[in-house]
Amino acid sequence: METALYNVEGKCVGEITLPKEVFDVRWNPDLVHQVITSIQANQRKGTAHTKDRSEVRGGGRKPWRQKGTGRARHGSIRSPIWIGGGVTHGPRAEKNYAKRIPKKMARKALYSLLSQKARDKEIVMLDEFHFPAIKTKEGVALLKRLAYAGGMAPSGAKRYALVAIPDGEGIMIRAFRNIPYAAAVASRDLGVLDAARYTYLVFSQKSLENFLAHRPAPQSNIA
């Protein structure tokens, strides 16, 4: 698949061929949804917790004697049937929400999402990252130049662009981390959840090489 190649000035300097093993995979929304929800479940912390009758403070004394009062027998005012008592079958903090995600499935979901973004012209390629200074204004200017050049639509989305930074150039993240509608991530750490959150993905030739080096082409039969 061919796509335009831009420089940091926002000028188109040619075309680049994206590997079809990564950027020409059939769109599989069910697989992408399954992987994303599994990742979100793995990030979930079980903080919802209700106290049962053994954890509620008080209720150690029997409220009244067993027989002779004419009232129903009770052993504690912290029984679940009492106001202020423990909760029966409520959420517990020890619940585990984690789900297993096979590596091949996660990789195929990522490639399916990247392929769909490539077809929608949402993959933006740069020849290299080169800023005179690692400042937020340089990151903002780069995104504006790419928008003016036609590589990207004008910014307006809450999560507009995600920039993949090459290995060894992690300091470049500083140029994007204070932009409210953009973010940067190391190319080797790019995942399906990151790709799904942002409209555009910006790669340099080097960052794309780093990304492909850490994620070999899928060999599974997952469709």
Summarize the structure.
With 223 residues, the chain is an alpha/beta fold. It has helices at 20-23, 29-43, 103-119, 136-149, 192-197, 205-214; strands at 2-6, 12-17, 123-126, 161-165, 182-186, 200-204.
Plain-language structure description:
- The chain has six helices and six strands, in the order ββαααβαββαβα.
- It has 223 residues and is α/β, with parallel strands linked by helices.
- The protein folds into two domains: 2-44 and 100-214, 3-Layer(aba) Sandwich (Ribosomal Protein L4, Chain: A), CATH 3.40.1370.10; 51-96, no CATH class.
- The chain has a six-stranded mixed beta sheet.
- A hairpin with a 5-residue loop joins strand 1 (2-6) and strand 2 (12-17).
- Helix 2 crosses helix 3 (103-119).
Write the SSE topology:
Elements: E1 2-6, E2 12-17, H1 20-23, H2 29-43, H3 103-119, E3 123-126, H4 136-149, E4 161-165, E5 182-186, H5 192-197, E6 200-204, H6 205-214
Parallel strand pairs: 1-3, 3-6, 4-5, 4-6
Antiparallel strand pairs: 1-2
Helix pairs in contact: 2-3
- Low-pLDDT residue spans: 219-223
What's the architecture of the largest domain in CATH terms?
3-Layer(aba) Sandwich
How would a textbook summarize the main sheet? 6 strands, mixed
Number of helices: 6
Question: CATH top level of the largest domain?
Answer: Alpha Beta
In CATH, the homologous superfamily of the largest domain goes by the name Ribosomal protein L4/L1
How many domain regions? 2
- Cα(first) to Cα(last) distance is 20 Å
Topology as a string of helices (H) and strands (E): EEHHHEHEEHEH
Strand sequence of the main sheet, in spatial order?
Answer: 2-1-3-6-4-5
Task: Return Rg in Å.
Answer: 27 Å
Helix content: 25-40%
Percent in strands: 5-15%
